[in-house]
Design a protein that fits this description.
The chain is mainly beta and about 150 residues long. The chain contains 2 helices and 7 strands, in the order ββααβββββ. The radius of gyration is 23 Å and the shape is globular. It starts with a strand and ends in a 16-residue tail after the last strand. It holds the Pfam family Spore_GerQ.
């Protein structure tokens, strides 16, 4: 016996649940839906510098996709002194903190800065970062827009 799930349009079976709970299926995912998900193969396409997808271009193995815009701006500014403003939810000691140092590198989810006076290095998570300032002009390469777009 199947019944329609609200909002999803997928049938829900009363029996045959997978044992991995999720928010939508707290007791597991119906096997029918699990099979549907396993049969679908994601089709990824490369991204332009703006983060937009290039339609119809397949990904080749080992090809790096640009997935973050801020990390690329930070990488263009390695060696500059920056100030990183971060907040930390539910922290009883400090809710917000300011880190200042030389930008060593940045990744999709982190920034590494070093304090030139102490030699101490900080690995800062992007998820806690509110904004970043620099005392000097930042290097920035604007994304190329598709032809005809201004």
């Amino acid at each position: 016996m199947s019944q329609q799930m609200p909002y999803t349009g997928y049938p829900q079976q009363q029996y045959g649940y997978d044992m991995y709970p999720s928010a939508q299926y707290p007791y597991g995912m119906p096997q029918q839906q699990q099979q549907m998900i396993q049969q679908q193969q994601p089709q990824l396409v490369p991204m332009q510098p703006s983060g937009a997808l290039i339609p119809g271009m397949p990904i080749t193995p080992g090809q790096v996709l640009e997935e973050s815009y801020i990390e690329n701006i930070l990488r263009l500014n390695r060696g500059k002194v920056i100030t990183v403003y971060q907040t930390f939810e539910n922290n009883s000691q400090w809710n917000a903190k300011i880190f200042r140092g030389v930008l060593e590198t940045a990744g999709r989810d982190h920034i590494i800065i070093s304090d030139p006076q102490t030699g101490k290095r900080y690995l800062l998570l992007m998820v806690n970062t509110d904004y970043i300032t620099a005392d000097e002009e930042l290097n920035y390469v604007p994304p190329q827009l598709p032809t005809g777009v201004r």
